[in-house]
Amino acid sequence: MIMATIIGMAIVTMVPRFIPAFIMEKISLRPWLNRWLNAIPFAALGALVFPGIMTVIPEQPWIGLLGGLTATIIALFNLNVIFAVVGAILTVFLLTM
């Protein structure tokens, strides 16, 4: 019974994830809608990262903002994301010493 429940939950979870993949390759979207949909991951990432930037040190939010600014500047040079992360970490580390 438990195994049937697990398999059933897996199927119920997988179906809504697979259906859009098969439908979207057959549908042609307008360019503005496609650009808007492509921007959603960046907006979600910003919504997840920004509160963390502000709470690195709650009493001094400017330290987190400078770390985020450092990561943004490094990212504008189209370097690998690991360099942006390490740059932000180093900035926050040096400012908290």
UniProtKB/TrEMBL annotation:
Keywords: Membrane, Transmembrane, Transmembrane helix. InterPro entries: Brnchd-chn_aa_trnsp_AzlD (IPR008407). Pfam families: AzlD. The chain crosses the membrane at residues 6-24, 36-57, 69-95. This is Branched-chain amino acid transporter. It comes from Alkalibacillus haloalkaliphilus. The lineage of its organism: Bacteria, Bacillati, Bacillota, Bacilli, Bacillales.
